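Researcher: Good morning. I'm working through a list of sequences from a screen, and I'd like to move beyond sequence-only analysis. For each chain I'm collecting a predicted structure so we can compare shapes side by side. This is the next one on the list. No need for commentary yet; just the structure.
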Amino acid sequence: MPFVEIRDLHKSFGDHEVLRGIDFDVEAGEVVCLVGPSGSGKSTLLRCVNALEAATSGSVTVDGVELTDPDTDVDAARRHIGMVFQHFNLFPHLTVLGNITVAQRRVLRRSASSAAAEARTQLSRVGLADREKAYPGQLSGGQQQRVAIARALAMNPGLMLFDEPTSALDPELVGDVLAVMRTLAGEGMTMIVVTHEMSFARDVANRVVFMDDGRIIETGPPAEVLSHPRQDRTRTFLQRVLQPGAAATPADRAAEG
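Model: Good morning. C-alpha cells for this chain:
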C-alpha cells in the first residue's frame, strides 16, 4: 500500500475551485517534488495532505489513516506528519531549544529532559548544535528554517511536507537548507516538496509532479519531466523559469512566483 494515497481530491474556496480532481500516490521512502506556476494548487494540495485544509471532496490517506474520514482523529494523525513552511513560524520569545521542545512536551507528553535530548539530536542533524540558546531573531533566515526542520523532525514523523522552504531566503542561504533536505532524502524519509529549486528536484526527487490550474498535467522521473516533458504546458513553464540543466536563479523564482 502506498504511504500517501490521494483520490479524486477537490478543494474549493467559495466559487473558486483550486484543486480539480487530484490523484496520486507516494511510496514509503519516496521524494516527490511538486512544481508549477503560482496559483496552480501546489500549496493547497500540501495543506490538504496535512488536513490543514479540509477537502471539498475526495480522499487523502496517510500511512493507512484516511484523514478525510469525518471519524478520524485528525490531531492524532497529524502528529506523524511534519510540515515546514515558507516562513519559519518560530516563536520569537522562545530559544531555539524552547521552540523544538514545546510541541514535544504538549502534544507528545514527553518529559522536559526527554524533549531536550531529542531537540539536541535534531539540532546536530541540521548543523546547529551550538545555537540551542539563541533566539530566532539572532539567527539568519537559513538557520531559522533549519530550526523549523529540526522542530518537525523532533516529532518523529513518518512523512515530511515542505512548502517552498527556501523561497523566503536570500540566495546564499538556500544551500544549507537544501543540504539538510538532501540528507533526509538519503536517509529514506518520505517527503513531498513544493519547490522552485529545479536543480534540487532534478538531483533528489524520485518523481516530479507538474501542476497547473488545479490539475496534475504531467508526472514522472525528474530527467523525463524536466528535460524531456511530454506536455506543451510543462515545456512552456520550464522554458520560462529555467534553462535545461541550469540552477535556479532569483529571476527564475520571480518568474514562477
